């Protein structure tokens, strides 16, 4: 029989076993806690009883884009468009460049009508400048920027497709509005669209610019834009125009290729007649087109040469809306 | 007075001057001869009284292409098509792959009806094989190959545009006939066109192949084709089909991207009903499409995987035939 001595190992072992088990349990709880912390957090602006799956806080920087929309005197259009654009697939965030100086942004109203699919940031400006939208916003987290005018509605299908095209041509401005310059015997350039004569490279037309008011481009070009000669900013400020032409010059210089890739839109609409503000866009000013020709020539001076190149590539989405768009007699 | 001694220098100088002058003249003649030899030679098949400017013997290998057209039992169509294709801009040479075994080529007739804009080479085959057209012909001098079926008429405008597109996408098959494969839950693939369900990547359709019977591609792929597993040749010979599917597999493996770029043709026609031979193409055989699905699955076996990738990029020529092809409400 084993009294004191025999019980001791048992009790010691028992205590050790107990301690060991406790330690194991505590470690397991800590690990479980750590794992839980790594799970995607539910976004703050979603109600807890939301039936939708919580979106991960940050979509891959390569698989999503940021919408930058500058707005002036058309808040009714802005809000209508935001309702549409907030739901575009692959959208990461919206940056609204608020050019209504001294006026409150609709942020409160926006928040009160949440939840929203993506965050919106209102960047309040101090001066009403056309080039405000070309700042290198620190809010940008994605490689791709989608820039839209505040009166332009492009369908979700068109945007999803154009984004996929941009991903294949990330150094170009991929968008829906092509324009061109032509040179004349005098050496003076002129700006225009299809109504201008074709540049004469074979048949059909050519374009040498894609306007940034409805286009995707790489955020790196916003950084580059900050490094341009002062004369470029002066030109844009003087005309309150031509920021898009300047961007096309920048991109063409950078790539040595045509700056843009034109994607033919299936459904693009200009909503400016729908505004209650009575404000119609800058392009209605009588001198608008003449200004743009003026800008082309000034930019050629500033950059000491004409970097724009022509392209006649027009991209459409195969089989959309239906296969009729590529059916032929074969 | 200076007799003997004085005359001597004069006579010597005179002789030396004479020699020197002769040498100079001879050297000048040699130089002139060398320069003449460097001038572009008039091509042999042009009549001396030709009013057209003689074309330089070799257009830049990058700025022109070689047409390869295989023909079987449709010589009337062949000759009709040659009249059209011989005049396509940027064409360097035509290679006719003569699959009419034992039959004389129309070379004599062709020559008697000269002059022609480009040289034509008739490659007489010993066996009637579908893959004869995929030989690495030593006659090829250009980087680009245009391969056409002997019953297909594509307009010059379409070809000029598609060639310019190929120059921007030289590692792809750039052509006018898109096709696709789809995978099924069983893992078995099926081959088809728009009638097959869309692969399900968003909306619209996708294509994963561009057929080589109406397409541009890099001659390097003909070299690559000679290095394929024997089983590929056996498959093509067994089916007398699928050489184009094999080429798409090859290109997709090589690039890791979609093999083809689809250019939407404005004017493409199939002339097979116009033939007097009564011979209609292979694709009328009952088993044609089933064979092609069979080929897709065999090739996946041979290459141990499915290298084909989907694309939905459709390219058209901006502003051709007229600006209506991109006009929109903006």
UniProtKB/TrEMBL annotation, chains A, B:
Protein's UniProt keywords contain Glycosyltransferase: yes
Residue intervals of the Glycosyl transferase domain: 65-320
InterPro entries in the cross-refs: Glycosyltrans_GT2/GT47 (IPR052427), GT64_dom (IPR015338), Nucleotide-diphossugar_trans (IPR029044)
Gene: Extl2
Compartments reported by the entry: Endoplasmic reticulum membrane
This protein's name: Exostosin-like 2
EC supergroup of this enzyme: transferase
Record GO terms (molecular function): alpha-1,4-N-acetylgalactosaminyltransferase activity; glucuronyl-galactosyl-proteoglycan 4-alpha-N-acetylglucosaminyltransferase activity; metal ion binding
Residue ranges crossing the lipid bilayer per the database entry: 20-42
């Amino acid at each position: 029989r084993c009294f004191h001595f025999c019980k001791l190992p048992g009790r010691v072992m028992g205590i050790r076993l107990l301690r060991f088990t406790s330690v194991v349990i505590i470690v397991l709880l800590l690990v479980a806690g750590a794992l839980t912390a790594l799970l995607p957090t539910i976004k703050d602006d979603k109600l807890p009883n939301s039936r939708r799956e919580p979106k991960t806080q940050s979509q891959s920087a390569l698989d999503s884009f940021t919408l930058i929309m500058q707005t002036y005197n058309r808040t009714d259009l802005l809000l209508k468009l935001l309702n549409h654009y907030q739901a575009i697939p692959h959208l990461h965030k919206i940056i609204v460049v608020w050019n209504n100086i001294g006026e409150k942004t609709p942020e409160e109203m926006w928040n009160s009508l949440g939840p929203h699919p993506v965050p919106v940031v209102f960047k309040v400006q101090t001066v009403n400048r056309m080039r405000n939208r070309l700042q290198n916003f620190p809010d940008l987290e994605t490689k791709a920027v989608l820039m839209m005018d505040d009166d332009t509605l492009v369908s979700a299908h068109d945007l999803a497709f154009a984004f996929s095209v941009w991903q294949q041509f990330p150094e170009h401005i991929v968008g829906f509005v092509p324009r061109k310059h032509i040179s004349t015997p005098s050496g003076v350039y002129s700006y225009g669209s299809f109504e201008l004569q074709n540049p004469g490279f074979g048949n059909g037309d050519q374009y040498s610019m894609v306007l940034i008011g409805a286009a995707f481009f790489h955020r790196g070009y916003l950084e580059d834009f900050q490094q341009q000669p002062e004369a470029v900013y002066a030109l844009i400020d003087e005309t309150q125009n031509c920021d898009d032409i300047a961007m096309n010059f920048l991109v063409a210089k950078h790539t040595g290729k045509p700056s843009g890739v034109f994607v033919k839109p299936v459904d693009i609409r200009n909503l400016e007649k729908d505004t209650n503000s009575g404000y119609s866009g800058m392009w209605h000013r009588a001198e608008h087109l003449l200004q743009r020709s003026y800008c082309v020539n000034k930019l050629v001076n500033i950059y000491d040469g004409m970097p724009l190149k022509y392209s006649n590539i027009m991209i459409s989405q195969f089989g959309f809306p239906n296969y009729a768009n590529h059916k032929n007699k074969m």
